[in-house]
């Protein structure tokens, strides 16, 4: 087998190389982290960008087997934030020079939902003199819907593939048309065609998932040529079907370590993309997100969801920041980011450099 040092000196990586990086321990793991950190600073610099996260509704038509707000979980109180609440959170982001917000919700596709999101996009743009960047994370939609939302002001879209291995995707979703792997793939293509900066990602440490699957995930991200990635550890949730497999899971610490190695390996594989430090990291380690920023991530999403709703947006157990208010979160984050040796890109959209390079190539 190749030595880690040899692999780290390369610019192209095979599946076997990536498996080797994901399995690095002790000094070798340290070498991987140092290489990723250096590549990050050399390519996207030391700046970290804020995206204020507004989880504006937990009403979901889907039943993903891992997710705490799945349709069949009757323990969740369903909510929909009002326009005023959503605009208030966005105003906070704008006034505090966050640069951008992410509007996230459960997945619905009714005409009323599509229209509401459209209206919100226009209202946020108007409120902020078009200064606030908007990322959407509202699941699978038709091309018309994606197009309409793009025209109304969303310019980035997050839609995680969750696992790029079809077999594993099927194991963690119900077997029906509403949860088809091909549909998810198609949506990612549609988003690109509409002109969005496209982000996707996977969960790490899922039951039945192997290191080879994760290496495939990394190659999938590269092949899809995505602009942004958000990926974090899978964390079990008591009220979901996947909870039955919890005895097969790696320890949380192992899943956390693997997630960091995924972030570092991805930074080497796709040096100029935006990589988010996933909130799920912080559910395992109180400074988990800062650790990810240090070794490759460059985006963080402080939670701006109105506090009353947060406990009803528990995708997984121990989700952090349940009762922190937005201002507190910001102070806390600032201190932490400085600790991680980075600086904050205040008032900037912090677009993916990769996206602009991609545009130049196709011009
Ligand atoms: N553990 C970790 N991440 C989860 N997500 C949903 N449920 C879980 C879980 N149990 C992630 C999915 C989804 C994103 C919004 O949250 O990857 O795309
Ligand atoms: Fe939310 Fe610190 S990040 S309180």
From TrEMBL:
Top-rank taxon, per record: Bacteria
Pfam families to which the protein is assigned, alphabetical: Radical_SAM (PF04055)
Listed name of the protein: Biotin synthase
Residues given in the record as [4Fe-4S] cluster binding sites: 60, 64, 67
Gene Ontology biological process terms in this record: sulfur compound biosynthetic process; water-soluble vitamin biosynthetic process
Binding site for S-adenosyl-L-methionine: 162, 184
InterPro entries the record matches: Aldolase_TIM (IPR013785), BATS_dom (IPR010722), Elp3/MiaA/NifB-like_rSAM (IPR006638), FeFe-hyd_HydE_rSAM (IPR024021), HydE/PylB-like (IPR034422), rSAM (IPR007197), rSAM_sf (IPR058240)
Keyword Membrane belongs to the record: no
Record-linked CDD domains: Radical_SAM
């Amino acid at each position: 087998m190749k030595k880690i040092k040899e692999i780290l000196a390369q610019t192209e990586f095979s599946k076997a190389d990536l498996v080797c990086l994901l399995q690095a321990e002790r000094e070798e793991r340290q070498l991987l982290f140092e290489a990723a950190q250096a590549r990050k600073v050399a390519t996207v610099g030391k700046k970290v960008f804020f995206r204020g996260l507004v989880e504006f509704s937990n009403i979901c038509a889907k039943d993903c087997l891992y997710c705490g707000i799945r349709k069949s979980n009757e323990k969740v109180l369903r909510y929909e934030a009002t326009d005023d609440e959503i605009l208030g959170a966005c105003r906070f982001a704008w006034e505090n020079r966050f640069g951008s917000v992410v509007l996230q919700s459960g997945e619905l596709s009714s005409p009323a939902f599509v229209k509401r999101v459209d209206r919100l996009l226009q209202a946020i743009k108007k409120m902020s003199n078009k200064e606030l960047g908007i990322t959407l994370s509202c699941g699978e939609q038709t091309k018309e819907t994606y197009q309409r939302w793009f025209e109304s002001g969303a310019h980035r879209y997050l839609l995680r593939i969750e696992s790029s291995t079809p077999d594993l995707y099927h194991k963690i979703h119900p077997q029906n048309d509403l949860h088809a792997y091909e549909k998810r793939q198609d949506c990612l293509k549609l988003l690109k065609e509409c002109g969005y900066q496209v982000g996707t990602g996977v969960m790490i440490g899922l039951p039945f998932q192997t290191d080879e699957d994760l290496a495939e995930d990394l190659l999938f991200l590269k092949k899809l040529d995505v602009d942004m990635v958000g990926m974090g550890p899978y964390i079990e949730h008591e009220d979901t079907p996947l909870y039955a497999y919890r005895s097969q899971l790696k320890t949380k610490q192992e899943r956390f370590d693997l997630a960091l190695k995924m972030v570092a390996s991805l930074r080497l594989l796709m040096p100029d993309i935006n990589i988010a430090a996933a909130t799920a990291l912080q559910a395992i380690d109180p400074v988990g997100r800062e650790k990810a920023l240090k070794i490759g991530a460059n985006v963080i999403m402080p939670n701006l969801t109105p506090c009353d709703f947060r406990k009803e947006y528990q995708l997984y157990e121990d989700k952090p920041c349940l009762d922190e208010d937005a201002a507190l979160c910001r102070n806390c984050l600032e201190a932490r980011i400085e600790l991680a040796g980075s600086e904050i890109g205040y008032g900037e959209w912090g677009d993916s450099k990769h996206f602009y390079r991609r545009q130049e190539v196709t011009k």
